[in-house]
Amino acid sequence: MCLCGSGAEASSCCSRFLDGDAVPASPEQLMRSRYTAFARGDARYLMSTWHPGTAPAELSLDDATQWLGLEILDAPPVADDAKRGVVEFVARYRESSGTRGRIHERSRFVRQSGRWWYLDGVHS
Ligand SMILES: [Zn+2]
Questions:
Q1: Annotation: CATH topology of 10-123
Q2: Ligand 1 center from residue 11 Cα (angstroms)
Q3: H-helix or E-strand spanning residue 35
Q4: Residue 45, pLDDT score
Q5: From ligand 1's centre to the CA of 42, what distance in Å?
Q6: What pLDDT was estimated at residue 124?
Q7: From the CA of 72, how far away is ligand 1's center (Å)?
Q8: Where are the domains of the chain?
Q9: Rounded distance, CA 124 to CA 112, Å?
């Protein structure tokens, strides 16, 4: 099953995006695939889906962080011609020290050049 918690097989969910065989058709698909990339330690995919205007110069992931699950709280459907979208989620993790944490974020996405990009997010 896919790490993003969709209930689908990884091959028909996030893997095709991380493998470069398809591009996410919605902000939610992009959000899920980025969570899966965090869980797999795939910094390359995270950078390649981050809007160039807001992406960090480089991204180093802490391999010791274990991602425990993703819960999508809100992912309003987007129209075919929509240029912006939002996804609110909670992601849970455990650090190597054993400390558990959660990220509650409302992420913003933009559609440019025929694909969706992660722009930024507001934590709550
Ligand atoms: Zn998935």
A1: Nuclear Transport Factor 2; Chain: A, (3.10.450)
A2: 8
A3: helix 27-40
A4: 98
A5: 14
A6: 81
A7: 12
A8: 10-123
A9: 27
Instruction: Name the one residue in this structure whose structure tokens are 């400390």.
Output: 99
pLDDT digits (tens, 9 = 90+) for 55-95: 999 998 988 999 999 999 999 999 999 999 999 999 999 99
CA of 6 to the centre of ligand 1 (A): 6
Could you tell me the distance, in angstroms and rounded to a whole number, from the CA of residue 33 to the centre of ligand 1? 6
Q: What is the mean pLDDT of the chain?
A: 96
pLDDT value, residue 114: 93
CA 56 to ligand 1 centroid distance, Å: 24
CA angle 92, 94, 95 (to 5 degrees): 135
